[in-house]
Amino acid sequence: MSQQGSAGNVLAAVASLFFPGLGQLLQGRILAAIAFFCIVGVGYFFWVLIIPPIIGAIFHLWSVIDAAKFKSPA
């Protein structure tokens, strides 16, 4: 991805919207993808406890924003 707002970043953000961490995976950031997927998955898994789903939703939104604003270091 060349710059913020590029088509690749938009595609990554849309992918993260449907599946948390997928946008980071498309950008080649494997550790970030695993972290977002695990945190959001655990948060949504414990939906009965009220607080974990809120944390999961916050991290889900963060994964979408992170994928959209990513700038390649090169």
UniProtKB/TrEMBL annotation:
Key word Membrane present: yes
Annotated TM spans: 33-62
Keywords, A to Z, come to: Membrane, Transmembrane, Transmembrane helix
User: By what name is this protein known?
Assistant: YqaE/Pmp3 family membrane protein
Give the lineage: Bacteria, Pseudomonadati, Pseudomonadota, Gammaproteobacteria, Alteromonadales
